[in-house]
Amino acid sequence: HVQLVESGGGPVQAGGSLRLSCNVSEYTYSSYCMAWFRQAPGKEREGIAALDSDGSIKYADSVKGRLTIPRDNAKNTLYLQMNSLKSEDTALYYCANVGLGYWGQGTQVTVS
Question: Chunked in runs of 10, what are the mean pLDDT values of the chain (112 residues)?
Fold first, then answer.
């Protein structure tokens, strides 16, 4: 059973930066697609960044140029580095092992 635990959310001022962490109980990056999603109040969940099993990375147009997803394999951790944050980035952020269908509990980011 794969467990994903997000952390690092919180309040941040517009224009600032924040780094979210997703700690995975088992190393699965090489075999499955890992992704970050977010859901703002009253809106549908949105996929914003994905790390595919071949190492390729894709970003949603809404965040392209402002987000990266570095990872530390030794720590089984995938990060979401967010820069130049905007109020519309306020949402609950989730990481997921898309291939296996496992999700974290989410971490709230509030930009004001």
Answer: 91 98 77 91 96 91 94 90 96 93 95 97
